[in-house]
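Format notes (please read before filing issues)

Several people have asked whether sequences and structure tokens are stored in separate files. They are not. Every record keeps both together, in the order shown below: the sequence lines, then the token lines. Line labels are part of the format and must not be stripped during preprocessing.
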Amino acid sequence: FKPSKVVEKDTSDDMFEALIKGDVDAVYTSSTSKMLDEHGGYGMVHGAPGWTRGVGYGCHPEYGDVVGLLNDGLRRYKGTSAYAALCAKFSNVTCDTKRTTFSNVKTTASPEIADHPTSRADIVLATEADWLTYNRINDAVLSGFDIE
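Then the structure lines:
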């Protein structure tokens, strides 16, 4: 297993220039709010505070087939010396040494998780729900004014 190259940038401008040019495929920043404020066109996919208790990786439900690949990649990377070096470099971050993955299914321990498909969706329907006081998520399903 050969993980992708990790590149560090001094400023968020440099980081996003690399993303826009296609020099990198993804970015990670510890200052999400600042990054989103400074660069339009990007957004938080799941912004519930405290839900990861650390760094989390997610996948839209329409890409259910990708979850297995992400989990495999994460398991493999967490077993490398590069991951151990990253954890040592940032010793104040609690690293996952158990190679934890996301099963993408509702369980008794995690009833808030919706069962997501394990295959690629043929079509995805989306809606905007920005009437905050009139919309809610119940049992992992968006409901309220904008939906009903």
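For reference, the curators noted about this record: The first strand starts at residue 135 and ends at 138. Strands lie at 135-138, 141-144.
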